[in-house]
Specification:
This protein is an all-alpha fold and about 100 residues long. It has helices at about 5-30, 30-35, 40-55, 60-65, 75-99. About 80% of the residues lie in helices and about 0% in strands.
C-alpha cells in the first residue's frame, strides 16, 4: 500500500473514531436546546456544550494530519467523515435510550 494513502486512511480512521463518542455526548445535550427557552442560561449552556463536542476533535485530527504529512486536499473528506461519525454516535445513543 502506498504510504501516502495509508496515512490518509489512518487520519480518516482517527477522525471517525474520535467523533463517534463525541456524537454520543452531543446527542445527550442536544435535546436541551429544544427544551429550554431560547437565550436562557440553560439554553446557552446546552449550546456551548454542543459546540464543544462538535469541535473538540479538530486539534487531534489536525495534529495527525500534519504529523503524517497528509495534504490539505483531504480536509473535506475528514470533515465529512467527522459529520457522519457524529450522526452515527447520536443515532446509537437514541437507540440505546429507546430500549
Amino acid at each position: 500500500m502506498d504510504p501516502g494513502l495509508r496515512n490518509v486512511l489512518l487520519v480518516a480512521g482517527i477522525s471517525f473514531l474520535s467523533n463517534l463518542p463525541l456524537g454520543w455526548l452531543r446527542g445527550g445535550v442536544r435535546p436541551g436546546l429544544r427544551k429550554f427557552p431560547k437565550r436562557s442560561r440553560e439554553w446557552w449552556k446546552a449550546f456551548g456544550m454542543t459546540m464543544l463536542f462538535i469541535h473538540l476533535s479538530i486539534p487531534l485530527v489536525v495534529f495527525f494530519r500534519r504529523h503524517w504529512g497528509v495534504g490539505g486536499w483531504w480536509i473535506p473528506l475528514f470533515i465529512g467523515i467527522a459529520l457522519v461519525a457524529q450522526a452515527v454516535g447520536e443515532r446509537v445513543r437514541r437507540r440505546a435510550e429507546a430500549t
